[in-house]
């Protein structure tokens, strides 16, 4: 009866343009349009954050957050959080990845709420938000690493799974320091054109070519449960991946991936990872630069976006404790398509997190 009465007055108010009280107006906006001026993100009545649908709210409207989710300051109360780490101080070649999180957020306005391929419904089972960017120090990479490590400690302490938008690949090192502090040595699915296992570059231990060497040295990885997929490009010696193999990593060079579905590979990877905690680190340069030119160290003959999606979907069932998508460098792809690809890959990551609901 109340509903009938309310609807009557709403209809009447709309028809004769009776000014509504601000409370009524806001309620009407929420229920009819999924949020309008205020971009009410919880308009569906769901207990979870649900991004406003582009069926009712123009995609191009609003302040760009990842997937048009609400922004909140901390990870409190969240099952998963999108977080940006805007640095490129660790890049060895073309810079620009500091603008990655920002452009990924802008392009992510195209994302919708359901995964049509896997029937995942992330916003019906997980509380997700965008918690902004780590306050990095663009003048000091070591200080930036410290800031990242401390920020991720706090994020992980809440029980939330971070979905990170890079930033160059240096960031995986301090993130994994915080992750291993909580979970112990983790398995790693590392998708990349490069192994990122150099020891020292130009005299420096910290950079985007060294994070996984540092992780091994500090015992952050369960080396028997590490796989590196998509590696390629010219090297400094004939066997560029000798060090990785010597640690116990499985190395899947790109030649093993050419012309194939990677779904069978991922069956093996899931067996390798077992039930323990796993971190997924996806460097956009794993994809062929024809698909993802907006990155700092592109290598030809890379993975297709289809293979990238197969890898991420193949992580379904793993005990994922964190994921990142790094090295999107907007200045090298002004179309935004690399960032859009990155946004979609991050959505795919969200859709394979533990406790996901699938229809
Ligand atoms: Mn990398």
TrEMBL record:
Gene3D superfamilies given for it? Ureohydrolase domain
Domain of life of the source? Eukaryota
A Pfam family in this protein? Arginase
| Residue ranges with Low complexity bias | 21-32
Q: Which UniProt keywords apply?
A: Hydrolase, Manganese, Metal-binding
MF GO annotations: agmatinase activity; guanidinobutyrase activity; metal ion binding
The record's listing under SUPFAM superfamilies reads: Arginase/deacetylase (SSF52768)
Gene Ontology process terms (BP): putrescine biosynthetic process from arginine, via agmatine
Protein name per UniProt: Agmatinase (putative)
């Amino acid at each position: 009866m109340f509903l009938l009465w309310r609807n009557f007055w709403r209809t009447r108010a709309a028809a004769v343009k009776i000014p509504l009280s601000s409370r009524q107006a806001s309620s009407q906006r929420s229920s009819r349009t999924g949020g309008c001026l205020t971009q009410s993100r919880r308009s569906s009545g769901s207990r979870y954050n649900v991004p406003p649908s582009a069926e009712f709210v123009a995609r191009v409207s609003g302040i760009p957050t990842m997937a048009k989710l609400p922004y909140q300051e901390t990870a409190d109360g969240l099952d998963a959080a999108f977080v940006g780490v805007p640095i490129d101080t660790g890049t060895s070649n073309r810079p620009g990845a500091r603008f990655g999180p920002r452009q990924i957020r802008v392009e992510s306005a195209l994302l919708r709420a359901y995964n049509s391929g896997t029937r995942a419904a992330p916003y019906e089972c997980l509380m997700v938000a965008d918690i902004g960017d780590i306050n990095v120090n663009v003048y000091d990479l070591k200080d930036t690493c410290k800031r990242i490590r401390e920020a991720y400690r706090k994020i992980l302490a809440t029980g939330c799974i971070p979905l990170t938008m890079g930033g160059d690949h240096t960031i995986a090192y301090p993130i994994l320091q915080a992750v291993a502090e909580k979970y112990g040595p983790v398995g790693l699915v590392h998708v990349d054109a490069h192994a990122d296992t150099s020891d020292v570059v130009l005299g420096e231990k910290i950079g985007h070519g060294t994070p996984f060497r540092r992780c091994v040295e500090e015992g952050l990885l369960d080396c028997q449960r590490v796989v590196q997929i998509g590696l390629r490009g010219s090297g400094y010696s004939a066997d560029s991946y000798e060090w990785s193999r010597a640690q116990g990593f499985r190395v899947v060079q790109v030649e093993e991936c050419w012309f194939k579905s990677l779904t069978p590979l991922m069956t093996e990877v899931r067996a390798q990872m077992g039930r323990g905690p796993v971190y997924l680190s996806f460097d956009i340069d794993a994809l062929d630069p024809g698909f993802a030119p907006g990155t700092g160290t592109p290598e030809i003959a890379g993975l297709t976006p289809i293979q990238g999606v197969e890898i991420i979907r193949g992580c379904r069932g793993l005990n994922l404790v964190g994921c990142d998508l790094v090295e999107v460098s907007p200045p090298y792809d002004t179309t935004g398509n690399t960032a859009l690809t990155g946004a979609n890959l991050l959505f795919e990551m969200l859709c394979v997190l533990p406790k996901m609901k699938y229809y």
